[in-house]
């Protein structure tokens, strides 16, 4: 096989091996042409339903980032909302949603999500930095500085 894949029954693949396989053969990350994807389908899709759902979620989450990089704010917002409907405590996706909302001009909703992240997320730095950015754009330099300091000190 051109991918040099060793085939194992699903039950013999350990979790860390699955993570390595997903990292190594991510069709979106490595931009594998559709014609080549059938070579990796046995590794990606022949899993238990819960693993397939998790893999699908990770791909959609990655697409949120891809949309953000390409400044496709509407698409990023829509897909981030779909992801959060499935995993409401995913702070990375909440941060991406807040950023996309901010970039698309929906400042109030973005700020509500950022405040939620500042108050409740396990890692608050990104939310604080984004809040500082939002406040700077509004011309509120003094309050922006407060959030910059929070970001630096967290």
Oligomeric state = single chain
Beta-strand percent range: under 5%
Gap between N and C termini, in Å? 48 Å
Instruction: Please outline the major beta sheet.
Output: none
Uncertain residue segments: 1-27, 30-52
Query: Helical content, roughly?
Result: 55-70%
Number of strands: 0
- How many helices does DSSP assign? 9
* Class by SSE composition: mainly alpha
Taking all residues together, what is the mean pLDDT?
76
Give the ordered list of helices and strands.
HHHHHHHHH
Describe the global form: globular
> What Rg do the Cα atoms give?
19 Å
Describe this structure in words.
The protein is 69% helix and 0% strand. The protein is built from nine helices and no strands. Helix 4 (49-69) packs antiparallel against helix 5, helix 6 runs parallel beside helix 8 (125-137) and helix 8 runs antiparallel to helix 9. The longest helix has 21 residues, at 49-69. It is globular and about 45 Å long.
Brief characterization of the structure:
It is built from 9 helices and no strands. It is mostly helical and 154 residues long.
SSE blueprint:
Elements: H1 15-24, H2 34-37, H3 41-45, H4 49-69, H5 73-86, H6 91-103, H7 107-120, H8 125-137, H9 141-153
Helix pairs in contact: 4-5, 5-6, 6-7, 6-8, 7-8, 8-9
Task: Spell out the key features of this protein.
154 residues, mainly alpha, globular, disordered N terminus
């Amino acid at each position: 096989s051109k991918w040099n894949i060793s085939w194992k029954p699903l039950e013999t693949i350990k979790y860390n091996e699955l993570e390595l396989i997903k990292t190594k053969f991510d069709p979106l990350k490595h931009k594998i042409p559709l014609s080549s994807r059938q070579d990796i389908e046995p590794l990606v899709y022949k899993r238990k339903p819960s693993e397939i759902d998790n893999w699908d979620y990770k791909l959609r989450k990655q697409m949120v980032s891809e949309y953000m990089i390409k400044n496709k704010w509407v698409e990023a917002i829509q897909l981030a909302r779909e992801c959060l409907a499935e995993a409401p405590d995913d702070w990375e996706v909440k941060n991406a949603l807040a950023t996309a909302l901010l970039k698309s001009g929906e400042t109030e909703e973005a700020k509500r999500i950022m405040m939620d992240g500042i108050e409740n997320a396990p890692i608050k730095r990104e939310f604080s930095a984004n809040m500082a950015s939002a406040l700077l754009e509004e011309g509120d330099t003094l309050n922006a500085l407060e959030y910059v300091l929070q970001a630096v000190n967290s």
